UniProtKB/TrEMBL annotation:
GO CC annotation: mitochondrial inner membrane; mitochondrial nucleoid
GO MF, any single term: ATP hydrolysis activity
Organism of provenance: Oncorhynchus tshawytscha
Protein name from the UniProt record: AAA+ ATPase domain-containing protein
InterPro entries in the record: AAA+_ATPase (IPR003593), ATAD3_N (IPR021911), ATPase_AAA_core (IPR003959), P-loop_NTPase (IPR027417)
Gene Ontology biological process: mitochondrion organization
Subcellular location: Mitochondrion inner membrane; Mitochondrion matrix, Mitochondrion nucleoid
Length: 510
């Protein structure tokens, strides 16, 4: 037991000794390091050349870091403006680095492609086709002669070919195109102004010229005076107006809208050409039906590489019949009808598209189209009923239509006084009728006594007396003559002036 206690005591003494030695070693090291650093710092401070060299080196290092950071930012913005794509641009034909890496074959084909017809694959009415063809020719010649581009507004129902024509116009003219939508501007908030400036900075760097197509432009180019828009959206609109205040030879602005009446007046002032894309007529519908029937039915069925076959029937007659039934449908709806025929063939057991299947798809498409029109008209009626003014003399069913009846304008002073002045200048006699409050005697009773008259009674129709003042060309004036009650005498005179006798009760004429 004693031996065990002695061992524990010796171990404790050794641990304490080792701990004291470790602390002493550490203190010695710290003193030596402090002395070395102190001597070095004193030597450095005492040598002015070393201090100057050190300060100059640190300054150059800071300048180098700051310059490198800003140069990188400038280079990034330059690359973004030249080769990148702004965040507001959804689709563009300009070659970007990312697109070139992802699709090298597509980029090479685009570089070697030739200008195409502006109306290739676009079905329009003859008048509209002639007009947009003139616009395409003028745009192409403007680019070749480095002139100023004209801004265009295309409006009309959805699916009538506005976006398709804008792309074809850019390709035909040899320009790049960029598509942005107005719905992307409002969610950007405070970043909208910066993003809008980036779009136009990027557009100005195009060497071929850029066609900037703004789809659904009324989403952010709304009236600033009447519409309730946020301050951020108002600032973005002002930035857009600032960048489009003058015509440019770098970019061409094309706006598309279904509700152009909502544009701000400053936007209307920047538009040079207005084109209405209406719904296709009978001839255009038949051309569209044949176009999409060939694209989605005949070509896949005759190609032999797809699971699709076509039954035997008169294709031309069927297309004509479908065009007559598809009245009121847009070009996009007709194209979806072609896709529906293709889907019907793919969903069948044998992959054969029959005439009955085509008719069924057409009936379903027409039913859906009528349902959409019912929704549209119902919404229009509800919106119009709130602003309808129902005049007392208006039609009984005017409030059901949903439009505001125009109020008549009050007559102007000159409209009232001019006829009167013209009558005064005429030499012919004129008659001025005045209502005279004349006392009308009560009809006598059968015994000659006067009947009592209750207070507040009104004379019967025909008992009132109107006096006339007749002015003759010679200046003679005849007053108090009743034209209706006074009978001319045999001597050319008149009866009693100013009073008339009521007929007696026995019916004896006066």
């Amino acid at each position: 037991m004693l031996r065990h206690t002695l061992c524990i005591t010796l171990q404790t003494i050794m641990i304490d000794t080792i701990g004291d030695l470790t602390v002493s070693v550490y203190l010695c090291v710290f003193r030596t390091a402090g002395a070395v650093f102190g001597e070095g710092f004193r030597a450095f401070v005492s040598d002015w050349d070393k201090v100057t060299a050190t300060v100059a080196g640190l300054t150059l290092l800071a300048v180098g870091v700051y310059s490198a950071r800003n140069a990188t930012a400038v280079a990034g913005r330059y690359i973004e403006a030249r080769l990148g794509k702004p965040s507001l641009v959804r689709e563009t034909s300009r070659i970007t680095v990312a697109e070139a890496i992802k699709h090298p074959i597509k980029m090479s084909k685009r570089l070697t492609s030739k200008p195409q017809d502006a109306l290739e694959g676009v079905v329009l009415s003859p008048n509209l086709e002639e007009r947009v063809r003139d616009i395409a020719i003028a745009t192409r010649n403007t680019r070749q002669n480095k002139g100023l581009y004209r801004n265009i507004l295309m409006y009309g129902p959805p699916g009538t070919g506005k976006t398709l024509f804008a792309k074809k116009l850019a390709v035909h003219s040899g320009m790049d195109y960029a598509i942005m939508t107005g719905g992307d501007v409002a969610p950007m908030g405070r970043e909208g102004v910066t993003a809008m400036h980036k779009v136009f900075d990027w557009a100005n760097t195009s060497r071929r010229g850029l066609l900037l197509f703004v789809d659904e432009a009324d989403a952010f180019l709304r009236k600033r005076s009447t519409e309730k828009i946020s301050e951020e959206l108002r600032a973005t609109l002002n930035a857009f107006l600032y960048r489009t205040g003058e015509q440019s030879n770098k970019f061409m602005m094309v706006l598309a809208s279904n509700q152009p009446e909502q544009f701000d007046w400053a936007i209307n002032d920047r538009i040079d050409e207005i084109v209405n894309f209406a719904l296709p007529g009978p001839d255009e519908r038949e051309r569209l039906v044949r176009l999409y029937f060939d694209r989605y039915v005949l070509e896949p069925a005759t190609g032999g590489r797809q699971r699709m076959k076509l039954a035997q029937f008169d294709y031309g007659k069927k297309c004509s019949d479908i065009a007559k039934r598809a009245e009121g449908m847009s070009g996009r709806e007709i194209s979806k009808l072609g896709v529906a025929w293709q889907a019907a063939a793919y969903s069948s057991e044998d992959g054969v598209l029959t005439e009955a299947m085509i008719d069924a798809r057409v009936d379903e498409a027409m039913r859906q189209h009528l349902q959409k029109m019912d929704w549209l008209h119902g919404h229009t009626k509800e919106a119009g009923a709130k602003s309808t003014i129902s005049p007392s003399a208006g039609p009984a069913d005017s409030s059901k239509i949903g439009f505001t009846l125009p109020l008549g304008e009050p007559p102007q002073a000159q409209d009232v006084l001019t006829p009167a002045l013209e009558m005064d200048n005429k030499p012919e006699a004129h008659v001025i009728q005045e209502e005279l409050k004349l006392e009308v005697p009560d009809p006598p009773s059968s015994d000659g006594a006067e009947l009592p008259v209750e207070e507040g009674t009104v004379p019967a129709k025909g008992e009132g007396v109107k006096a006339e003042t007749v002015v003759t060309p010679q200046g003679e004036v005849a007053e108090g003559v009743s034209q209706t009650d006074a009978a001319p005498s045999s001597e050319g005179g008149t009866g009693k002036e100013g009073k008339t006798k009521a007929p007696p009760k026995d019916g004896t004429p006066v």
